Amino acid sequence: MVLTCIAVPQTGFIGRRVELAVLDNAMQQTLAGQGRLVLLSGDPGIGKTHTAQEFASRAEQQGMRVFWGRCYEEPGAPLYWPWLQLLRGWLEETDSVLPDEMAGSDAGVIAELLPELRQRLPELLETPSIDDPAQARFRLLDTLTRFWQQTARLQPLVLILDDLHWADTASLKLLEFLAREIATSPLLLLASFRDNAMSRQHPLSDTLGELSRLPHCQRLTLSGMSRDETEQYLGSLAGTLPLIVVATAIYQHSEGNPLFMRELSRYLLQEGLPADGVLPRIPSGIREIIGQRLNALSRDCNSLLGMASVIGRRFELELLAGLALPETKLLDLLDEALEVHIIEELPQPGHFQFNHALVRETLYEELSTPRRMSLHRKAGERLETLHPHDLQARLPELAHHFAEAAPDGTAETAIDYAERAGDRADTLLAYEEAVHFHHLALQLLEQYLPQDSERHCRLLLALAEAHNRAGGHADDSLGNFMQAVELARQVGTAADWSVPMLAHAALGYESVGWRIGRHGDRAVALLEEALAALDPAAERLRAKLLAALCRANIYCDRPQAAHAALRQATRLARRLGDPRTLFEALSAIVPARSWPEHLEERLAAASEALELVHQAGHPEWAVGDMSGWYIGDLMEDGDIDTARAVLDLHLQVANACRQPFLQAVGLSAQAMLATHRGRFAEAEQQARENLIVGRRFSPEHAEGVFGMQMFTLRREQGRLGELQPVLRHFVQNTPEAAAWRPGLAVLYVELERLEEARLEFTYLMTDELKAVSRDAMWSTSITYLAEVCARLDEAGYATPLYRHLLPYVGRNIVFGAHTVCYGSADRFLGMLAATLKQWDTAERHFQTALAMDERTGGWPWLAHDRFQYARVLAQRKKPEPARALVEAAEQTARGLGMEALARRCATLRETLSTRPVYPAGLSGREVQVLQLLAAGRSNREVAERLFLSPNTVANHVRNILAKTNTANRTEAAAYAIGHGLVENRP
């Protein structure tokens, strides 16, 4: 028939020319190396797939390789299904196995998703496992992204994802990840979806929000054909039907939708027109039209299609044969449906699909509930028969079919397959799907087997872990863990499974809680309850519980309880002789960086834990929860060499695994060390790289770290004015930003806005710093406040600040674990002591600071030490040593680009430039030496105080005796007192 040819929307129509022109432009940009993402949306049947097909043909003519991934609407579709189709399409076409750039470990990661690859590469080694679920999924997404990028470099690519509204969440996550990385690759992503198929809760809704922010993303919405285009579409009917009347009627009913026009046209061809030429009532709904077309088929054909609809829009002959008739009769009925285009053959032999999802939905909804359940059961059983050795890949389908048939007696089988499908999804890092299947298993269990408490508890734990791994569902995860706890409590110790599951629920609750910064009080209670109920023989589990209890007490700020748990955990782990258990016990105390008095204990525990790592040959143990904290402690202790060694180990593992969190930790620590050395450009580059990597994993955390590092850099560069409006607005309008108020006070001081600084400072110092959180920012906050206090000369507040900073004496100040090091804490203690006019104490602190920052190579902080010390010496009327220090500070500041400090140094240097006239022709340096001699200092002590060599001091002493005509040091001291050269000390 004529309509068979014109049923496909013709791309020559004006309405499609526009879209194809946009797609052609995107293709040219891609060929020029600028990757593009095009989102093609519209109503069902509007022509999205046909537009993509026409564009694919054009792209192939331009020398691009095109691969298709089609999403299935049926719940049993395999995980990552559209991406599996893309990979299989590439595997079928390629001559080589992998791009040369892909390492063996990458091939192993891809083979986990695509087993066919391992058949080509049987020598592939197993990919090392990663404990952290988020990092494991990142490795998969990153590997697949780099695979497509490197494949596109060999030949420009078009990847088409059709019917994206049916994609599983794991596939959407991969699309988000890849789309962010293609801007500089010759790769075009084209994704089509129904924009009427989504609520705000639909997973694709969030994905579209993420994708729409990308600068290389473009969205095209296909609309219906116009009245004139409809007439063109039906033009070939002019000899048979009155064109104007038909076109008008069809346009009114279809609103230009090509699918609706096609079905209405077929309906008219089947029904014909009355002799008077007046159209009969055309059904208002497309389902009615589809129903009328189906009515034209035989009863057996309709029955067969109803069975096929239970399988899904796409179905395979082999599976359908198990539900229906003998093969010969079945093929005849399929031919009947093929002839009228109700179904169509797919390229894979023996596979078919309904020509539109609405056809399948219409057939499925017409089935009675008992009939549906029976067919789903038969479909599941047929799958078991057909794939006895490959059930793993079919688990989602099996779970779906047996779940739909659960009232028909398949509930236990459905629960088993749903649980296994959840475990399989977890293995494939499809955590959102793992949540779905574990939740399905739990629902079925609660409905059909509520008495199975052990399985109920196990499924709750599995669901809690799945929620945690999926990310962004911490509250759901904690809630599931608590449900498992309640269930274990109800059963009591009568069941041998209840106590171990209570213990695992408590461990899971604590693990989720501390990672999101939740207060540890509830975790402590759960862990103590589990420990009390645990069999004494379960020593390994007891050691794990004690280690978790140590960490939970850290997050309750209970140092004594934390250390008591630590001692028990390590003692038990040593007796067990298990390196991993001992490592976990030792590393439990490492996050306690807010307790400065326990630094030595943390360092000793981390050092022993790291030695266990080396002995066991498992560096990945340390590169996770421990290494970042340990680097911070080593920096605080001033052990830069060991900190660099731990960082090198960290980077080695993080880069090998390509885990974003670990890479972000490494980049953050690198930026901290670069800043410490005064390599500001390098530090900024690493901070920006850290922001890019960290946003993939935890945007909020990454932006916080980046903000802190850039605040530090811009401050040293004298560019804080650039941040002032943003920081002030952030602090004043974001409730959780109160922790940044000390930074705002410092910013005001730097910008000479002293009254605003005083208001912030006074507010923060009220009630013994009640407004300042005792968290990871505590040491930084009191350091900032010490600087503000000294600048404002607020002696009344200097004493409490000095007391809070004193535990850090002899150490560096480090923000968080590995974000920023501010050099020696003694510099800030010296500034506070000077504010209190405790000059000797201040000088001792500055001398300690100078030694620490010079030893650790903290050149920016050494410049600050010298400047602050010079200010104190100037106040004490010691211009010569003050001048020497400030000149050295200024030289360093200018060399490193520390413009703000350089300006302050220049001002102080000018103040000191007027040289006083001393009696007997004494120089300023000789007066300094004489003053120290009068104070009873030895030559060696004088040398240390004035940064001179002992020989130089001896020469100065001989000159002093000669100029003052004195015989010895005692007479010289009397001369100094008599001529007013000795300062009156407080």
TrEMBL record:
For whether the record's keyword set contains Nucleotide-binding, the answer is yes
Keywords of this protein's UniProt record, alphabetized?
ATP-binding, Nucleotide-binding
Name the record gives this protein: AAA family ATPase
Pfam families reported for this sequence: AAA_16 (PF13191), GerE (PF00196), TPR_12 (PF13424)
Organism for this UniProt entry:
Halomonas rhizosphaerae
Q: Which InterPro entries match?
A: AAA_16, P-loop_NTPase, Sig_transdc_resp-reg_C-effctor, TPR-like_helical_dom_sf, Tscrpt_reg_LuxR_C, WH-like_DNA-bd_sf
Q: Would you say which domain of life the source belongs to?
A: Bacteria
**Transmembrane stretches, by residue range?**
none
Q: Which CDD domains match?
A: LuxR_C_like
